[in-house]
Design a protein that fits this description.
mainly alpha, 6 helices
Length: 114
């Protein structure tokens, strides 16, 4: 679990630093570029579409883990729009809360206890 947490922190730091540089150079205009690449039907668009599918699955998993409650839906939206920057922090926090119990990390406390 320690190695997993170190990986999460490392990934978060890398993504945060990279994102900071991109925002400083190009601003917050991600969505037109992201969907524009998809519309061109080329490899960058294929990657973005694949990534969007992964973000959707991530958001659905986070929402499901919280029983599709209002906070769970809000966290799911954060997962969808926050990507790995959100997911690495989320996984770190819930792994600490679950004291390393991966059943609880994956399923949530209620489902893991049944």
């Amino acid at each position: 679990m320690t190695s997993f947490r170190v990986l999460l922190v490392t990934l978060w730091l890398i993504i945060a630093a990279y994102t900071s540089v991109v925002v400083a150079r190009h601003g917050f205009g991600l969505l037109p570029v992201f969907f524009g690449d998809i519309a061109t039907m080329a490899w960058p668009g294929q990657f973005n579409l694949d990534f969007l599918c992964m973000l959707t699955l991530s958001g659905l998993w986070v929402s499901w883990r919280h029983g599709f409650s209002a906070p769970g839906l809000a966290l799911g939206l954060l997962a969808l729009f926050g990507g790995a920057l959100f997911l690495t922090a989320y996984l770190l926090i819930i792994s600490i809360q679950a004291t390393g119990n991966m059943h609880e990390v994956l399923l949530g406390k209620a489902r893991a206890s049944t």
